[in-house]
Amino acid sequence: VGTVHDMRFVFLDNDTKLLFATAYDGDWDAYIDDFATKIPNAMDLLFCNAEGWPGIRSPKVKDWIVEHQISADAWYVASPNLTVAETRRLERIGKALDEFLDKVSE
Amino acid sequence: MTTQTATANRSKQDSATEQKIQKIRDVFADAPQMAKTALENRVRDLASHMSESRSRMESAGRTGSRQGTVSELTLILPFAPDGARRLRALLQAQNGNFDDADKVGTVHDMRFVFLDDTKLLFATAYDGDWDAYIDDFATKIPDIMDIAFSAFEGWPGIHSPEVKDWIAKHQVTAEGWYVANPNLTVAETRRLGRVGKALDEFLDKVSE
Q1: End-to-end CA distance of chain A
Q2: Chain A: nearest CA to B122, how far in angstroms?
Q3: How far apart are CA B56 and CA B99, in angstroms?
Q4: Are the beta carbons of B173 and B74 closer than 8 angstroms?
Q5: What pLDDT is stored for residue B155 in this prediction?
Q6: Which of A92-98's residues contact partners 24+ apart within 8 Å by CB, and which partners?
Q7: In this structure, are residues A25 and B199 in contact, taking their beta carbons and an 8 Å threshold?
């Protein structure tokens, strides 16, 4: 999907509920659309295990998700300006720079 | 002879994969049709994940899961009487400012979610081991810990020898844990941010 920083699946209260929590880049609507278009099968496999899941292709899927979402009252991110893509780009730059400096000092 | 052995090994692997696929199908036997269709589209990928020699998920130490350097900690904490009101007031006073977390230096992200005002969900992603992480909070920001966590039933105080047992008791380990950049600590990511900026400035200078 390319915009997901992290994601956790936690089983609660003797397997009666699931806590799903994720950190992602950008806007809610675009994020859900991304999952629906890029990994629809994985979504249906995971979420069909929750009561009332309408299916990722259903027009009701966004309402269903909103209904089960709880906004955080406080939310902290160490590097708020870095998207997943930008962080990966920086990782490659760091590696290239190290190789370059090694070469120069050879 | 060698070819025969290779062929025999391959067919052994194939039948092991088939067994794994059958196992997933059995678990989903009573699932909705939508899920079964999705499963058939995904079953080969799943079987190949299952036969990877090493799981990418490890333990974060005492409790919790880890991918690479990044660990997860999830707490569900019962509020003490009036605790929800106090914690909400505190978080509002912070006004989105978390200099304290910056000070700890190993926290990737952190959320506070009120559940029916009877419980708080606290979920965080951090670098390294469970014990070291809790020690960090205790030594670097003890006051903020006591202000925030005294909102909960039974909080023993950050300096109490029982504090780790109390935290571990309320922690629920994630069964699934994904991190986009499992090799990057918070510190390394910040360093790379500076490297990227310096490189951009350098390139601007060169092309002036």
Answers
A1: 40
A2: 9
A3: 32
A4: yes
A5: 97
A6: A93/B192, A93/B195, A93/B196, A93/B199, A94/B191, A94/B192, A94/B195, A97/B195, A97/B199
A7: no
Assess A39–B contact: CB distance below 8 Å, yes or no.
no
The pLDDT assigned to B11 comes to 74
How many whole angstroms separate alpha carbon B109 and alpha carbon B59? 19
CA distance A90 to chain B (A): 6
Nearest to A79 among B31, B76, B190 (CB): B190
Q: Identify the CA nearest to A74 among candidates B107, B160, B182, B189.
A: B107
- CA nearest to B39, candidates A40, A10, A67, A19: A40
Predicted confidence (pLDDT) per residue in B128-178, tens digit = 999 999 999 999 999 999 999 999 999 999 999 999 999 999 999 999 999
Model pTM score: 0.86
Quick check: ipTM above 0.85? yes
Tell me the sheet residues that pair with B98: none
Cβ distance B102 to A78 less than 8 Å, yes or no, reads yes
| Residue B97 near residue B124 (C-beta atoms within 8 A) | no
Residues of chain A neighbouring B107 (CB-CB closer than 8 A): 76, 78
Which amino acid would we find at residue B149?
F
The string of pLDDT tens digits covering residues B34-72 is 888 888 888 878 877 777 766 678 899 988 999 999 999
Q: Cα–Cα distances in Å, from B54 out to A34, B9, B12, B26? A: 29, 20, 19, 24
CA dihedral B134, B136, B138, B140 (to 10 degrees): -160
Q: Are B114 and B84 in contact (CB under 8 A)?
A: yes
SS3 B69: coil
Q: Which two tokens stand for residue B143?
A: 């006051």
Q: Give the three-class secondary structure for A25.
A: coil
